[in-house]
Each structure stands twice: as structure tokens, then as C-alpha cells.
Amino acid sequence: MHHSHLYGDCILKIGTNRALDPSCTADPPASFAIRIADLTIALTCDDPMLAVPPDGAMTPFLVREAEPDLRLQARWGKLGAVSGGEQLFESGGLWRLDAQNGSLRFSFTSPVLGPLPYKMASLDKDFTSGEVLIHQPYFPPGRAVYPLEYPLDELFLIHLLAAGRGVEVHACGVVDSSGQGYLFAGQSGAGKTTMARLWQKTEGAGGAGGLMILSDDRIVLRYQAGRFWMYGTPWHGEAELSFPARAPLKGVYLLRHGTSNRLVALRRSATVARLVACSFPLFYHTSGLDFTLGFLDQLVEAVPCYELSFTPDERVIALVRSS
Amino acid sequence: MNDQPKKPYVKPEITQVALRSGEAVLGGCKTSTTMGPASGMCTTLTCMVIAS
Asked: Do A39 and A161 touch, CB atoms closer than 8 A?
């Protein structure tokens, strides 16, 4: 496939890959850092074409901090077929994970680009540092590439979290005007974005001290200073709502569409199971999986949890507030 | 001795919870132009599968 056809329009207009603005070339950024849920990932590169900060919803999550939790170096390379090592996981989609020489290696392959990996990321076993290699022959000269393009950014975050730090869930996070956090969890189609819009319609959003939607699709949960917190992430849903803030968790609501608005208290085990199904478990990581289950079990014990059947009308907000 | 009455025995139940593998493993493309499934089409160059 001819690369100029592939990239000529698309890379300029679509996704996080984009052409480097000529005005940036005089003083190109050699590094950037993103901070999500109080975890910082920093990336540096000698070639400014690979150190272009992300745009879009990730922009508010850019920080200038010097001490990251995960330090990455990006560089161009010529990647070969994935070989050697022990395969730990095959996602069935873009990526697979192998263990090799004590490190973890994520390989990304897409039939759009060709049979070879377009990107590999090698991380030390402690997940504190690593390297991201971009397969140069797949990318035309002079084009900037964002090395942490989804899903690598989110993969890094869920691995950092699984090391005893927290859990990311498929959920909408709403912070009301009093600063209380409501978590509405559910898989795709459960009504997370609908719920976010109902809150916006009822309480408004964006005003000083008003309603905040931390994300309408992905929320990180952490336990800090004796309480559970929910954090916004840049990975949003259809309403494109995301915000880099946190709030103490007041209640968890497992969403389902219904014919009326109704709250049902579930058994603890059932609630944990439902939350696990809304999380991003590291199936190949024994201690990470163990931590995730234990974390969610403790959360369900500490925070009121309900199944919320709802219809798309604003009365459900009053019901949630009264719970 | 513990004087508290015994809790009634409750037979364990197995409840199946559906796990959507495509969503759970971040195997596909979430991003469109704005890092979210805002578009019905998978528009990121490297992605062929839409996930959420």
C-alpha cells in the first residue's frame, strides 16, 4: 500500500497522529508527560517527531512534572516479526504481550499497515521505565507520530494501577455541586453517556462550583487517605466528557435500562462480579488480578452500591440523590 | 462460647456475569478524532476494530 495515500490526508486530520506544525520545529518539545489519576507517564525522544504531545481530550492531562511513575524513551526502528520470549496474552485485536529477558514487550500490529508490528513497547518488570519503538518504514518521513496512541496509553495506565494502586472501570463519573462523586458503571450501551447528559440537563455543567463529569466512559478508582476516590480520565464516551479531577466516592450504581427508575441493593459478591465485568482485568497477571478483585471487594464493602434501572428522564437524578 | 444465634444457611449460588472481551482487553480502536467512540467509524489509521 502506498503510504502517501494512507497518510497524505489521514494523518493530518485523523487521530492523534498529526503533522508537526512548522512553527514548532524551531523549538520542538523533546518530552512530555501526562498525569491521569495521580499517575504520571513521561516520554522523551531525541527526534521531536516522536515527542509531540497528545492533542484532543488528552491535552488537559498534560503536566510539567519531572518525576514520573513510568519513564519512557521513544525512538524509530525497524521492527521484525514478533518472535522469542513467552507469550503472555493475545488481545485478539491490535496487541499482544510477551515476556522476554525479564521485561514485558507489547507488540502492536494492524492489517492496515502490514504484517510487521508498527510499534513495540518494552517495559522493565517493575513497570517503571521502558522504550517505545516505532517501525519507521510504515511512517512516511516528516510526519509526527504520537507514540502512546491508544490503546498503549490506557494499557500503561491499567498496568500501573494493577500494581496495588487502583482499578479503572467502564463508568461515568459525576461530581455534584457539593463535591460528592457518583459512579455509574456499565458496559457499552448501558447508559453511561445518557446518565451524564441527564445530570447536565438537571444541574448544568461547567459553572463555578457546579456539576463536573469526570468522564462519560472511563473512571479510575483509588483508595487514598482512608477513602475511595474516583478520578477522571481522557478516555470518554459519545458525549466527549472528560476532566482531570477527582472526588470522594459516595455511591456506585450499576446501570441497566428499565421501564421505570428503581434502585436495588445487590449481594456483595454479585456487585463485585458486576464491577469486575466493567473493569479491565489483566488476565495474565496473577497478582494484578488478585489485587483488582480484593480492591473491588473492599470498595463494595465500604461504599453503598446499587443496581440502577432507569429510564432516560431526569427523575432518576432525584432517586440517586436520595439513596 | 459465642451466644449469638447461628446465621441461617444460605446455599451458594453461581451467577454468571457477561464479560465483553473486546471491551475488557482494549483490543480494538476506541479513538476517532477525539479519543472516544464518538464516530461510528473506526478512523484511526492503525485500528480495524472498534472497542469501547
From this structure: yes
